[in-house]
From TrEMBL:
Functional note: Major role in the synthesis of nucleoside triphosphates other than ATP. The ATP gamma phosphate is transferred to the NDP beta phosphate via a ping-pong mechanism, using a phosphorylated active-site intermediate.
EC numbers: 2.7.4.6
Subcellular location: Cytoplasm
Recorded name of the encoding gene: ndk
GO molecular function annotations of the record: ATP binding; metal ion binding; nucleoside diphosphate kinase activity
Listed HAMAP family: NDP_kinase (MF_00451)
Protein name, UniProt field: Nucleoside diphosphate kinase
GO BP terms: CTP biosynthetic process; GTP biosynthetic process; UTP biosynthetic process
Positions with a binding annotation for ATP: 9, 57, 85, 91, 102, 112
Active site: 115
UniProt domain Nucleoside diphosphate kinase-like: residue ranges: 1-138
Family, as annotated: Belongs to the NDK family.
Length: 138
């Protein structure tokens, strides 16, 4: 069993998809071990996506991710990182497989409904960015 980190992004929150997305995450066998409803400042969003600093879409990404509330969560499952990326689908919803969370709820490559960590190491870093140890209940 291991962990991944996710955010339901501001577009999906605004469009009323929190419940449906959490339902699909649970139905796929992920257990929520930490969760909060919060809003990222520009500074926090910039720090979270620091690996993308310098890319053409960075400013747009930081503005978008701080544009409204999000749901942040740590999820537990065997093979959590890879299985969660399969569940959410490709970054660009036009390329996301049918039935994936992004295929159903994303509006564009920028406003793509959910985040999923891309490695075990980043899952740990990103989970710690949002949650103290005392906020995680395995
Ligand atoms: P995350 O789970 O959010 O990390 O998405 P990802 O791993 O599928 O994609 P990546 O880490 O490469 O990019 C991070 C985020 O930047 C994406 O989810 C998009 O929101 C945004 N992004 C990536 N590429 C583009 C782009 O070409 N244009 C715009 N506007 N945003 C992009
Ligand atoms: Mg990524």
């Amino acid at each position: 069993t291991n962990r991944t980190f996710t955010m339901i992004k501001p577009d999906a929150v605004r469009n009323g998809h929190i419940g449906a997305i959490l339902e699909q995450i649970n139905a796929a066998g992920f257990r929520i071990v930490a969760m909060k409803y919060t809003r990222l400042s520009q500074e926090k969003a910039g720090a979270f996506y620091a690996v993308h600093r310098g890319r053409p879409f960075y400013d747009e990404l930081v503005d978008f991710m701080s544009s409204g509330p999000i749901v942040a969560a740590i999820l537990e499952k065997e093979n959590a990182v890879a299985d969660f990326r399969t569940l959410i689908g490709a970054t660009n919803p036009e390329e996301a497989a049918e039935g994936t969370i992004r295929a159903k709820y994303a509006t564009s490559i920028g406003e793509n409904a959910v985040h999923g960590s891309d490695s075990d190491e980043n899952a740990d870093i990103e989970g710690s960015f949002h949650f103290a140890g005392t906020e995680i209940f395995a």
